[in-house]
Automatic annotation (TrEMBL):
Protein name stated in the entry: 3-hydroxyisobutyryl-CoA hydrolase
Locations listed in the record: Mitochondrion
Class of the enzyme per the UniProt entry, highest EC level: hydrolase
Lineage of producing organism: Eukaryota, Metazoa, Chordata, Craniata, Vertebrata
Catalytic function, reaction form: 3-hydroxy-2-methylpropanoyl-CoA + H2O = 3-hydroxy-2-methylpropanoate + CoA + H(+)
GO biological process, one term: L-valine catabolic process
Length: 378
């Protein structure tokens, strides 16, 4: 149990946002994200270190137009995104803001967040994310879709949404099923955490750099003269090759990958659970224990999201995920999950429906239904 509670507790810590949250006035909002032209690059700095740089609507509304402007600017050759402080790149979307807000806020937040995810995915300029420290949920959304993601020994990646009655969004339906084997399915359903070099080995990051060298790496990138994407890749590769921390370390899930590929190739959550039970190894039972804590509705949504997303474009996935996000806002489990994990912190969500069996195909189909004129449009 302790591992599981550690997982819930750390997710709690990520949302210390609760204590710090206030509706920011305009001057605060200006400072929540820094947008600067430096050398050959546009630099985005997520600047809410006390909140682990959690992403809110104000920040999204500043980053999106600036990204579009830099993309068109002939003097900007590169876009860098990073977080302030040593703890986090970005611990996720500011969930409390969404829950405390009205329906309009949750509509706008997800719509504009996913539009930003897509803008990063289609950005014509090389985009480099320094995913140093905690990188979860919304933080993954503003990094993974870019050309380059640089992890350090302090990187901590997870998609923990099934624990709060949500699903691994921000394009999770696109990037998770494209990871090696069925790794993405494990990450989606259990919220399994990857640390340090494993974030690179898993394919979440494109490069690994020792954190003490991150400042120098940024300076070297900014100093490039009219660089091409290849020039940028060369600098990253040089630093990656020189990084020594955990160099020979094998992937944390290496010995389990064959089993993961087999367990998670099932088409239903029930079958995955049966596979884990039948295996009976301590690793299998550990994953089972975690899965059994999650929202049954979220588990079923997430599995179908990844299966469908495996053959969709990023835009098609984000359109699907927007439908899911709005259905979750209307439903019970998201509000209950946030209450139990982030607000009251009793860590005992009462899911409705409480069992997988009670989540019918009809229920599931309703989550995936088109929103007609309210669908996400790019």
């Amino acid at each position: 149990m302790s591992g599981l509670f550690a997982r819930f507790n750390s997710f709690k810590r990520i949302n210390i946002t609760l204590h710090h949250l206030r509706m920011s006035n305009h001057t605060d909002a200006e400072q929540e994200v820094l947008l600067e032209r430096k050398g050959c690059a546009g630099v985005i700095t997520l600047n809410r270190p006390k909140n682990l740089n959690a992403l809110n609507l104000n920040m999204i509304r500043q980053i999106y137009p600036q990204l579009k402007t830099w993309e068109q600017d002939p003097e900007t050759f590169l876009i860098i995104i990073k977080g302030t402080g040593a703890k986090a790149f970005c611990a996720g979307g500011d969930i409390i803001e969404i829950v405390k807000g009205n329906q309009k806020i949750s509509q706008n937040f997800f719509r504009e967040e996913y539009m930003l995810n897509n803008a990063i995915g289609s950005c014509q300029k090389p985009y480099v994310a320094f995913i140093h420290g905690i990188t979860m949920g919304g933080g993954v959304g503003v990094s993974i879709h870019g050309h380059f993601r640089v992890a350090t020994e302090k990187s901590l990646f997870a998609m923990p949404e099934t624990a709060i009655g949500l699903f691994p969004d921000v394009g999770g339906g696109y990037f998770l099923p494209r990871l090696q084997g069925k790794l993405g399915y494990l990450l989606a359903l259990t919220g399994f955490r990857l640390k340090g070099r494993d974030v690179y080995t898993a394919g979440i990051a494109t490069h690994f750099v020792d954190s003490e060298k991150l400042g120098m790496l940024e300076e070297d990138l900014l100093a490039l003269k009219s660089p091409s994407k290849e020039n940028i890749a060369d600098v990253l590769e040089t630093y990656h090759t020189k990084s020594k921390i955990d160099q020979g370390k094998s992937f944390v899930l290496e010995e389990h990958m064959d089993k993961i590929n087999s367990w998670f190739s099932a088409n239903t959550v029930e079958q995955i659970i049966e596979n884990l039970q039948r295996d009976g190894s301590s690793f299998a039972l550990e994953q089972l224990k975690v899965i059994n804590k999650m929202s049954p509705t979220s588990l079923k949504i997430a599995l179908r999201q990844l299966i469908e997303g495996s053959s969709k474009t990023l835009q098609e996935v984000l359109t699907m995920e927007y439908r899911l996000s709005q259905a979750c806002m209307r439903g019970h489990d998201f509000h209950e999950g946030v209450r139990a994990v982030l607000i009251d912190k009793d860590q005992s969500p009462k899911w409705k429906p409480a069992t997988l069996k009670e989540v019918t195909d009809e229920d599931l189909n309703n989550f995936f239904k088109s929103l007609g004129s309210n669908d996400l449009k790019f």
